[in-house]
């Protein structure tokens, strides 16, 4: 549903944060905070965070008046267990993202871990391309997750690949509340 | 000055976001938002942002009660013009960072663009190593900037190198308020 809001950006770009290293979601959250600080209307769709709303960033982001959060999937990585429920969750997440991108209510839309959903075959690259083609020009789109397909890299304006030069999990250090989630 | 605050983390790690790609500062800001959401006491020291306090992330971060921001340097990249003032600003930034890391008042300290100051010779790697050695174990430290020296990569627990697969600036798209600053 289109609104009468004057678009903040003349031309919204398509950005991808991919790669095996840590920092992809954090970079998208950092960008969202910056945009929200300038008054942009921001929608973050989490494809694989589930109901784990103790994530620290959720607390801050959900307190901002011009930020909307929608979380789907399971608490862990959806690749681990592709149940019927996971499939439904991915479908709902993609519907929510499509509505956010094309509905005229947001200036920046983040699709966090969409690449995981693509790798698992829960969403197709063609669906994402159709969404991008339907995107109003002023909407900025950020997609995250390892394993971005070549077709989306080709379409994107900005692609950062985050390489894990050193990753604490591979050194036996577990995820810590407050820092890692 | 030490406080009686119970440290949030048992062991704070040292993380580096480096590389030529976009997302380094955003990742650090995203991590800060997550940490602040969990009640960690966060201090961000910006080595090269200067008085440009119209950065969108500053507005949100500075509104959070447990986040402290300190900004030094010049509005642009300090490498471009290393004046006496730039040198003094870098010195002050490093003093502020040292105080934040060792003073007991913060659980997470971000040194944004410290690598730029190192590359410019405004701060030495030895100074940073001495600071790290003086760091209480519970303090988490995040350093950003392209060109992280090998000695710091060796010391760090987490190193993400952000590669610019595609960068909009190289395609003639200029930095945009609301998204890029």
Number of domains of chain A: 1
What's the tally of helices of chain A?
6
- Rg of chain A, alpha carbons: 16 Å
- Summarize the main sheet of chain A: 6 strands, parallel
**Count of strand segments of chain A:** 6
Assembly state: homodimer
CATH class of chain A equals Alpha Beta
Largest interface: A-B, 57 and 58 residues
Which ranges of chain A are low-confidence, i.e. pLDDT below 50, for 5 or more consecutive residues? none
- Record the strand order, biggest sheet of chain A: 3-2-4-5-1-6
Q: What percent of residues of chain A adopt helix (DSSP H or I)? A: 25-40%
Report, as a whole number of angstroms, the end-to-end distance of chain A: 33 Å
Helix and strand run of chain A: EHEHEHEHHEHE
Q: What is the global morphology of chain A?
A: globular
- Mean pLDDT across all amino acids of chain A: 90
**CATH superfamily assignment of chain A?**
P-loop containing nucleotide triphosphate hydrolases
Strand content of chain A: 15-25%
CATH topology of chain A: Rossmann fold
Structural category of chain A: alpha/beta
InterPro entries (chains A, B): CblAdoTrfase_CobA, P-loop_NTPase
Enzyme class (chains A, B): transferase
GO molecular function (chains A, B): ATP binding; corrinoid adenosyltransferase activity
Keywords (chains A, B): Transferase
